[in-house]
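[job 0412] stage=complex_fold ligand=zinc ion status=START
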Amino acid sequence: MALCIVYIVPGMAQPQAARSYTSEKVLLSGGDLHIEIDRHTGILRALRHKTAGTIIRDEVSRINHLWTLSMIDQGQSVIVGPQDFVDFEIMCAAPNEAQLIWRSYKGESASAFTIAVHIRIDSLTSLSYWNIAVAGMSDMILSRVSFPQVSGLDELADGTLAVPHWMGELMRQPRQALQSSGGHSFSWTYPGLLSMQFITLYDKEGLYLACTDTAMYAKQFAARFDQDRGMVLDIEHIPSLSPSATYKIPYSVVIGGYQGDWMTAAALYKSWAVQQDWAQQSRLKNRLIPDWVLTTGLWIWNRGRSEEVLQPLYALRQQFDEPISVLWHWWHQGSYDDSFPEYLPPREGTDSFREHITLAKKHGIHALVYMNALQWGDQTASWKKQEAARYAIKSPSGQLHTHVYNVFTNRSLTNMCVGTPFWRDWYADLADTLLRDFGLGGIYMDQACIQRECYDPTHGHPIGGGNFWAHASRQMAREVRERGSIATALSGEGSCEAWLPSLDLFLSLQVSRERYAGDDGWEPIPLFQSVYHEYALSYGSYSSLMSPPYDEKWPQANRPDTQGLLDSVYSQQFMIEQGRSFIWGMQPMLANFTVDQLLQRPQEINYLLRLARLRKQYPQYLLYGAFCRPPVILPAPLMQQVTLSKLSIYAGQNEHVRTFQKDMPTVLIGAWQSADGQLGLPIVHLGSVKTQIRLDFKAQDYDLADRGNLYRSIENKKQFIGTYQNGKIYTVLELEPREALVLEIEPIN
Ligand SMILES: [Zn+2]
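[job 0412] stage=complex_fold status=DONE, emitting structure tokens
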């Protein structure tokens, strides 16, 4: 650094418990952001935003260190922190930029082992960019870098934590949840379960914590509660293991403040994210998705043989003239969740399977069939014959990653390494057979949007973390496409930006998360769609009117006594799930559909079909549109107590439907902007009595011209309902029970 200026902040009163603490801080300023760093310890003392206010405040702690390194020293794991260095120095090259350096490891002034943190505030965006570099590691190997560890969050910790865990979830009062969980922490790996590289914690003011990684390196975002530090957010960077003297994270961490909520943070992220290669190469944006997928009006997620899976669809087609597609489980030879990849021949026989698929296509019904992209049953004959363990992922100590999903058979599945040509070839060969020999529409690649580390040195990929997994995953999808037909559709489980160039569809079951997760404090939000709706097609739901079916290949002794229609007390849950899919711009899905539902649950089926038809009328918003913040409903919508069911797919063994209640709004609303600048507001009324709502908002909030027309659309009926002028949009809507509509705002330029 050529110039060193230390900004001294006037001292605060000294608490007794921190007698030795000095209040001298280095102040960095740029745009609306101010950062204070302890000049003696490098601790982040404060982060303030001119309009949002104080985001981070930590006046006294001596342990809220910024970083921790996990290292391997002569075969032993070692944790290294700032406290292991005797000398600390902070230098400022400019009012908005600083370098923090830790030297003299274990008191040895001659040690070359140094840690340097660089901070710069971008004055235009008021975002701060942070990096960490490690030098002089000698024989030690770096395995993890935890940086930054952000504490001093008392201002926000009783607010809301929003996380792009696949589609997106939020938790209110996260400190309380973390504290009461007895040391539990939440963590999400990116790319993978974390679909985008940011999280946000907000109350009146918000903290934005992100990375600018363009190359899909492995990292983990976490939230935890520490008795001494309170709530802590951190990012753990996971490099590949290599004996190098130096390391620097190959991107920046971003810390910013804002006033708003998760939608504000998502907009901040979107301005960076859609410029990246995964967005530019997205299959939806580049119109690479097969037509049959784009035109699908409704997905049916059924399981079993053609008779059970496809026959009900022919009956449904009598009532629904939009294309129906099927997500098909349990078509395969072996039993579910313990026999993969022993899929072929299909359990009903090769000829029957082929004939039914051909017939279905003649009726406009296409199928995505289940094929797990990660797992191999380790008690199958093929596991031994192919010596599959050689190509499975290994932990640092060489252990396999094995898990028993199937509680009926207790046979486990083991994670394969996508970094091995063997596994990619094996999977692509299977996919080729299905796509070519059977003429299937595509493959549902279960567990595709998941990342693992692998420490097997014989696999030929960098060891440990790094970014080999995401690249190898894309390679696997390419190999499937190269062998299959051009119209092959590939779906992932969950959502993730890293797979936008590889996958056509992203299964987003969180729209129905209460059904499998219960009331665990997390609520679904359309966070992924709010950034990537026009780049990624989200579909799917666990939403069902039935108890989960039972695989004929599972032990008959465990078959549950009661299977069939769920009690109609849960109908409102079904309506909410389907309503969310509609307003959140997703392709709808009905799970476990049987013909008798047409007769026994006509109200629910008709409601679903109405939503599906209306959605198909507005692809410019609900398929290709960009997410906008929905206008506020006036008066605040009535809340209703909804009876919800939770039941796992493995119901039948010591598990029955669990019931819980939750207050939920009776009117749902979304907002989507079309490419030509019009605004579409999908609205669903879930109440059972007629109601009236008002909308009152400004045209400029949606970049709309000052005047225009308003249209109200229900199924096959678009009605002009008035105009707006002077930039003020106001309308009163009468809503019938269970009504769904699209309010369209057409500006006159
Ligand atoms: Zn491997």
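Residues 393, 417, 419-420, 454, 456, 459, 461 surround zinc ion (CB under 6 Å).
[job 0412] exit 0
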